[in-house]
Design goal:
The chain is α+β, with helices and mostly antiparallel strands and 214 residues long. The protein has one domain: DNA-binding pseudobarrel domain (At1g16640 B3 domain). Helices cover 26% and strands 28% of the residues. It is built from eight helices and ten strands. The chain has a ten-stranded mixed β-sheet with strand order 3-2-1-4-9-10-6-7-8-5, sandwiched between helices. Its main location: nucleus. It is found in: Nucleus. GO terms for molecular function: DNA binding.
Length: 214
């Protein structure tokens, strides 16, 4: 099982340290979730692991010192379809690894307020008609998504009302899918970070041997 968080090492460190998100989300930390900012990783773990090189390079170029693992999944036909034009995110990954690091405004924009509340996170959010209108108007939270080659584009993170599925979608998805070269049954991994401006970013790519990714 891959660790959830990683600090990107500087050349002098030589290794990556893991961070324990579960302890951050414990009862002792819940009171800190009432402000408008996302929760921050707190507890260091002594275990070390190596980030995929391509993820580390993308995050470094965008000024991010911290990256967290979101999920692994197999590409389904719907993910590779130009007609459906979206990338499905596993429910547990949304609940455990995306929702906890979103601000109140981001939760509302991504239509994930109810998910956060069902998961038991004690954040104060505005569930009034004003938030609902904003989510419907914009259709999701705009994020940047990057492929293995470092090419990126804006997509929308949102949850569909009917199926309750969370997806990345948007007019750029067809080009993103083409550049990633996704095919049905490919095994891919998804990582997340915030760039130097605080914008939420995802890195999604096939799992291949390290030698092939250099």
């Amino acid at each position: 099982m891959l660790p959830m968080f990683s600090l990107i090492p500087t050349p002098s460190k030589g290794k990556t340290e893991t961070l324990d998100l579960i302890s951050k989300l414990g009862a002792s930390r819940q009171d800190e979730a009432v402000n408008d900012g996302p929760l921050q990783p707190m507890k260091f773990n002594e275990n070390a692991f190596e980030l995929p090189g391509w993820v580390s390079r993308v995050a470094n170029e965008l000024g991010s010192p911290i990256v967290w693992f979101v999920m692994e999944k197999d590409i389904f036909a719907s993910d590779a379809s130009d007609q459906q034009n979206r990338f499905m995110i596993k429910k547990h990954a949304v609940v455990e690894r995306i929702v906890p690091i979103l601000t109140r405004a981001e939760l509302a924009a991504a239509n994930l307020v109810d998910v956060m509340e069902r998961a038991g996170k004690k954040r104060r959010v505005d569930r009034g008609e004003r938030v609902g209108n904003r989510e419907r108007e914009h259709g999701g939270l705009e994020v940047m998504v990057y492929c293995r080659g470092g090419w990126g584009c804006p997509l929308l993170l949102t949850r569909w009302e009917a199926s309750q599925a969370s997806v990345l979608k948007g007019k750029n998805y067809k080009e993103f899918h083409r550049r990633c070269g996704f095919a049905v049954k490919d095994r891919v991994e998804m990582w997340a970070f915030r760039n130097r401006d605080g914008r939420l970013c995802f890195a999604i790519g096939k799992q291949i041997d390290l030698e092939l990714s250099l």
